[in-house]
Amino acid sequence: MRMNRPTTPGDRAAHWNTVYDTKGEDGVSWFQATPTITLELLDALDIGRDASIIDLGGGASVVVDHLLDRGFTDVSVLDVSKVAMEDARSRLGAAAERVHWLHRDIFDWTPERRFDLWHDRAVFHFLIEAEERESYLRVLRSGIAGDGHVIIATFDAHGPTHCSGLPVVRYSASELAELFAPHFSLVTTRSEEHLTPAGLIQPFTWVTLRPAS
Length: 213
Description:
alpha/beta
């Protein structure tokens, strides 16, 4: 079902709250019990366990669980959906107190610090307007450390055209790298065929970037 595209923070929050209320944390199409590619790319960077990490649009994702299990001590999760974040906090139990929870909209947020790692799996491809992508880039540039890294995943060129009733933009690795240039340089790329809870295959493009010197 196609929906009217939400264009305000309140509308976006309402949309994603409805999605999580309806499908639950393990029923959404992007659910992964183990975020394999994220963890492999993280291992390749070999960053310290005291590195500051933000999972943008982390919602109810289990990325935060795995980061805590691996001993990372400075983890933040940002999401517009209060329902998703409450699901994650409930799942983590007492460990949730070790996480910085940011119930914010990406377009209504000014980072108060710079992060060593910025992780975004499946937020950026919802930005279908050029001004939205430019706004995202401004926030990213203000929130990433000079020697930090960025991991971003989107649907690839052959992926779905919509997700959760909303249109998306599909990218190859070179197209993603070009969008973030000249402010960021490409470090590595990966491809993934994600199996959804419904048994469908969604091809993803992954890139790791770093601020250009």
